[in-house]
Amino acid sequence: DGLVGSEMCIRDRGKGQETIVITDSQDPVGGATQDPVIERFLDNLWAERGLSDNSLNSYRHDLLQLQDQLAVRGKPLQHANREDLLAILAAEIQQGKSPRSISRYLSAYRQFYRWLLREGKIDSDPVALIESPKTGRGLPKALTEEQVESLLAAPDTGTTLGLRDKAMLELMYATGLRVSELVNLELSSINLNQGVVRVIGKGRKERLVPIGDEAHESLKAYLADGRPELLQGVQTDSVFVTNRKSGMTRQAFWYMVRRYAVQCDIQQKLSPHTLRHSFATHLLNHGADLRVVQLLLGHSDLSTTQIYTHIAREGLKRMHETHHPRG
Fold first, then answer.
1. Hey, which residues are catalytic here?
2. Calpha distance 282→286 (Å, rounded)
3. Among the four residues 5, 171, 251, 285, which has the most C-beta atoms within 10 Å?
């Protein structure tokens, strides 16, 4: 979301060849079966890097898709060469795949074939001399503070679902949690007395994030009145549950955010992480230190957090242009 469209090329550094296309599109999501070699690779990824289920499923999807594409060419996955991969990627480009999608495919291929090489299952890495396309600068989209206030006020707290929705929106904006972190929260992760939430993020890294007064009150009301009414005596560790008495999903949360955005007449395109992006941007706008924001967001690298400084500067420029007499 927010990707700046750019001309894309896949370069074969061995032969100096390139294929060019200029469109962006979304990568389709398909079903996935299992393959023993791919599953062993994913087990290795999980053990070495502690990747989430979502990340592992993405690798699985891309590698199974590659396996199908190679089968059309009469080759098993382990016998692919550089020319095969270049031809397959070129076909994806011609179908309108975005630079980001192509880079993702290449990342999956690169990790997989490097693992095969280390395991002694292949003699050379077919991805070694293929460069990733330039993807442009991805800018997360943040809401204005007024839009956030409108969104947070949208749920009807006179209903059990409204209590839940209010608590989820307030907590996400107060903490900057990822959607997966929010929906996977368990009761033991929340300490209302200390006003903090314990989050297990990417790579199984743990962090403590302050909740804030507004989110604290909304969460307290939901846990006291909304959650018990939704569960009707059913036991579960999930903090946020549905009227089906099970934990919320990422998709259900996303649909909920979109519904309230329409209700609030928020026109701009949203992503599941819009409130997370807004959290970071608004903190920086109000003078928060970049390293503090990095810790709150759970970024392992400061460069990942620095993207928000660009958004904050753009906001300041717009304010200057609007309010300065010579802007």
1. 178, 202, 273, 276, 299, 308
2. 6
3. 171
What is the residue whose two structure tokens read 């280390």?
118
Task: Go through the chain and tell me how many residues it has.
Answer: 327
**Considering the entire predicted model, what is its pTM?**
0.58
In whole angstroms, give the CA distance from residue 169 to residue 151: 8
28 pLDDT higher than 80: no
Q: Is 139 helix (H, G, I), strand (E, B) or coil?
A: coil
Both tokens of 39, joined, read: 């599953």
d(CA 114, CA 259): 44
| pLDDT tier, 18 (very low <50, low <70, confident <90, very high otherwise) | very low
Joined tokens for residue 44: 């290795």
Q: Which residue has the tokens 């009227």?
A: 243
- DSSP notation for 46-110: HHHH---HHHHHHHHHHHHHHHHHHHHTT--GGG--HHHHHHHHHHHHHTT--HHHHHHHHHHHH
Q: State the residue for tokens 């999501």.
A: 29
* C-alpha to C-alpha distance for 48 and 194, rounded to whole angstroms: 34
pLDDT at 301 over 80: no
pLDDT in tens, 216-261: 999 999 999 999 999 999 999 999 999 999 999 989 999 999 999 9
Q: At what angle do helices 145-152 and 160-175 cross, to 10 degrees?
A: 150
Strand-strand pairing, 130-131 and 8-12: antiparallel
CA count, 13 A, side-chain hemisphere, 52: 12
Residue 305 tokens, joined: 């957090």
- 307: confidence class by pLDDT, cuts 50, 70, 90: low
**27-36, 190-199, 253-262, 305-314: segment of lowest average pLDDT:** 27-36
Of 199, 197, 240, which is closest to residue 216 (Cα–Cα)?
197
Q: Find the Cα–Cα–Cα–Cα dihedral 237, 242, 252, 52, rounded to 10°.
A: 10
